[in-house]
């Protein structure tokens, strides 16, 4: 069934990304996995600070300062620089960024990620992602690293205006 195939594919992508980018502090660390179907499970590091989305929407905390936003933006851009030679995330958004206690972001959720060289040769009619963070070209089924940069710009704007 299609849902199961998507679920398994997302799990495989998460596991592959976790292993490939394990040496970078810009991504959540995958510590282990259960690969016995149907009980697929990833064991990842605990990141205490919650998501950037939670931080932006928090009524209890003061809004992010310009310097905090710039630091977050720099870390995310550095993470994308590590990712983009091989891969496009395709679902970068505040809820897919966890904030460590030290205020450093970690990119999570590689379930929609794709090898950008493969994207050029495949039908990407699965314009999946979160619509508000999707670059216009995603609606035309054209994904490239630029779609993640577009989402990063929206995230920076959201950090500064909430």
Task: Explain what you see.
The chain contains 6 helices and 6 strands, in the order H-E-E-H-H-E-E-E-E-H-H-H. It has 162 residues and is α+β, with helices and mostly antiparallel strands. The chain has one domain: Transferase(Phosphotransferase) domain 1 (Transferase(Phosphotransferase), domain 1). The strands form 3 sheets. A two-stranded antiparallel sheet has the order 1-2. Strands 3-6 form a two-stranded antiparallel sheet. A two-stranded antiparallel sheet has the order 4-5. Strand 1 and strand 2 form a beta hairpin. Helix 3 packs antiparallel against helix 6. The longest helix is centred in the first third of the chain and has 19 residues. It is globular. The termini are far apart. The mean pLDDT is 86. GO terms for molecular function: ATP binding; protein serine/threonine kinase activity. It holds the Pfam family Pkinase. This is Protein kinase domain-containing protein. It comes from Tetraselmis chuii.
Count the DSSP helices. 6
Task: Give the DSSP E fraction (strand runs of 2 or more residues).
Answer: 5-15%
**Which second-level CATH architecture applies?**
Orthogonal Bundle
Number of strands: 6
InterPro entries: Kinase-like_dom_sf (IPR011009), Prot_kinase_dom (IPR000719), Ser/Thr_kinase_AS (IPR008271)
Protein name: Protein kinase domain-containing protein
GO molecular function, one term: protein serine/threonine kinase activity
Pfam families: Pkinase
């Amino acid at each position: 069934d299609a849902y199961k195939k998507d679920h398994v594919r997302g799990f495989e992508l998460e596991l592959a990304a976790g292993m490939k980018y394990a040496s970078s502090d810009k991504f959540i660390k995958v510590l282990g996995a259960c690969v016995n179907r149907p009980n697929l499970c990833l064991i990842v590091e605990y990141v205490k600070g919650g998501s950037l989305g939670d931080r932006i929407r928090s009524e209890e905390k003061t809004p992010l300062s310009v310097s905090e936003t710039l630091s977050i933006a720099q870390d995310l851009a550095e993470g994308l620089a590590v990712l983009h030679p091989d891969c496009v995330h395709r679902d970068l958004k505040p809820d897919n960024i966890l904030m460590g206690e030290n205020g450093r972001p970690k990119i999570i959720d590689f379930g929609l990620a794709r090898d950008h060289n493969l994207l050029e040769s495949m039908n990407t009619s699965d314009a999946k992602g979160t619509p508000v963070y999707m670059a216009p070209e995603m609606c035309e089924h054209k994904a490239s690293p630029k779609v993640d940069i577009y989402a990063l710009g929206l995230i920076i704007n959201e950090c500064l205006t909430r």
